[in-house]
Amino acid sequence: MYQELSEDEFVAKLENVAHSRWRMEFQRYYASDTTQPRYQQWLADGTVDWAYYDEWIPYMEKLRAEGKIVRRIKVVDEPLNDYWRFTYAQVARLDAAGDSTRWLKRRDLVFDLFPANDFYILDGRELLYLHFDAELRPAGFSLVDDAELVEAATRSFARAWNMASPHHEYRP
Asked: A Pfam family in this protein (predicted)?
């Protein structure tokens, strides 16, 4: 089944996982971040606005305490562009809170087929796709629960996870 989701439905899906949510990020930047004052501040002086994460870090810690697994693979080009250097500057704290992050060089992502869009695998049962417009602004969400597609994406994610560098080992 393929189903378009509203933003509220998307958030509810993420918040109601039973045991895991895995994400692959393929975009070269995210306009939802690059248009924010916190990004401009970081570009100007390298200061990270940690207040932005006042809710996220405790939420990740809560999921970890509940035994839920959060994994994220960031597929990047090297050398990192400004956006990914901005992100890299923040990931250690997020990773420590339970948002387990690995980095994978785009050129190394030739061993498998992946969707063109970022996606989440929720509890190994559903694929949640993130859609973007030409300017890489969020443009919608869709849900797929086809068992074959979910299984294929899960296998591909697992291979990518094993190839990717844990954040504490990654040196851009």
From this structure: DUF6879
What are the pLDDT digits (tens) for 107-152?
998 877 888 899 999 999 999 999 999 999 999 999 999 999 999 9
Q: What is the Cα–Cα distance from 42 to 110, expressed in whole angstroms?
A: 33
Strand order of the sheet with strand 99-105?
Answer: 2-5, 138-144, 126-132, 118-122, 20-25, 69-76, 99-105, 165-166
Output the six-digit token pair for 86: 């901005």
How many structural domains are present in the chain? 1
CB atoms within 10 A of CB 22: 23
User: Which alpha helices (DSSP H) does the chain contain, by range?
Assistant: 7-15, 31-34, 37-45, 56-65, 82-97, 147-163
Residue 65 belongs to domain spanning: 2-169
